Amino acid sequence: MARPLRLQYPGALYHITARGNERKPIFRDEADREMFLSILSHAVERYRLRLHAYVLMDNHYHLLVETPEPNLARALRHLNGVYTGYFNRTHRRVGHLFQGRYKAILVEKDSYLLELSRYLHLNPVRVRRPALLARYPWSSYWDYIGKRRAPQWLTQEDVLGAFGGGGRRAQRAYQAFVEDGMTQGRERPWEQVIGQVVLGGEGFLRSIQKRISGSPHHREIPSLRQLAVRPSLEQIQEKVRKVSAELAALRTGNRSNPGRAILLYVAREHGGLSLKELAACCGLEESTISQTVGRVAQLRRSHPAWDRLLWRLERDLIHNP
């Protein structure tokens, strides 16, 4: 499995997540949270970061951070390392505090900054009652809605600027924007992440691909194929129709349609469509789709004819969408 993306460049925006080892708490009390914020503020100033938003949960944290200099790895190594040392000394423990390396998703700022700031600030609501949103102190939400004086190390102007500036009117508008996000059924931004490492449109993806192709640290970066623009369901359907004659000789089971099975498999694996999206498009139960995709994956491993057909279909989608 490829290691997480570590592409660093001036002006990059990242969504950062770090979780406790074995999902155990990384904050046991208010003193721990206060210390983490102190270390975070020092990291922001030392590495000249622009921290747009943060939230501290019991066993993980989220940051929305921009790097004017290409120094994300050094900044996070400092933050997690210093806090781990404090936590182990304070609570008389040894060993890793965090679960592996932090997760970093590159984000297209113009398209997703506002939505991600809302996503971070709504995290407490997902595990607590919505009424407690404005009562949770361990995020930057209080700073954004004017409930407390924002620290100098928190960058608010880019988010509040979208609501008319940094005054009380902008704060109220942002609060309404975040509260609107509590509406059930709202799409989460992570459903649009490409290759588990990039969140952005086609132009942004192309710019990342160019940076990757020229990076000397290519072994730490997922293949370009992972970051390729995903084919649409219509494009996949067209490619499957072109191999319909070959599909007649294939079977997925006594009552299965091989054309539909391959369509579902490719749409899941290469189109990035969710079970819910495919169910709505194809009029099938999500459980049926999941079972069909799993059956095709198994047939591909055990039958060369399936693997050859799928390989040609995938190659055609990648090079001739």
What do these coordinates show?
The protein is an alpha+beta fold and about 325 residues long. The protein is about 50% helix and about 10% strand. It has helices at about 30-45, 70-90, 110-120, 125, 140-145, 155-160, 170-180, 200-215, 235-240, 245, 260-270, 275-280, 285-300, 305-320; strands at about 10-20, 50-55, 60-65, 105, 200. Strands 2-3-1-4-5 form a five-stranded mixed sheet, covered by helices on one side. A hairpin with a 3-residue loop joins strand 2 and strand 3 (about 60-65). Helix 1 (about 30-45) runs antiparallel to helix 2, helix 9 (about 235-240) crosses helix 11 (about 260-270) and helix 12 packs across helix 13 (about 285-300). The protein is elongated and about 70 Å long. The mean pLDDT is about 85.
Parts with pLDDT < 50 across at least 5 consecutive residues = none
Instruction: Give the overall average pLDDT.
Output: 84
Helix-residue proportion? 40-55%
How much strand content do the residues show? 5-15%
Q: Alpha-carbon distance between the termini?
A: 26 Å
Q: Give the strand order, joined by hyphens, for the main sheet.
A: 2-3-1-4-5
The 3D shape can be described as: elongated
List the helices and strands and how they pair.
Blueprint: E1 12-19, H1 30-46, E2 50-56, E3 60-67, H2 72-90, E4 103-107, H3 109-121, H4 123-127, H5 141-144, H6 157-161, H7 168-180, E5 198-199, H8 202-213, H9 233-242, H10 244-247, H11 258-269, H12 275-282, H13 286-302, H14 304-319
Parallel strand pairs: 4-5
Antiparallel strand pairs: 1-3, 1-4, 2-3
Helix pairs in contact: 1-2, 9-11, 11-13, 12-13, 13-14
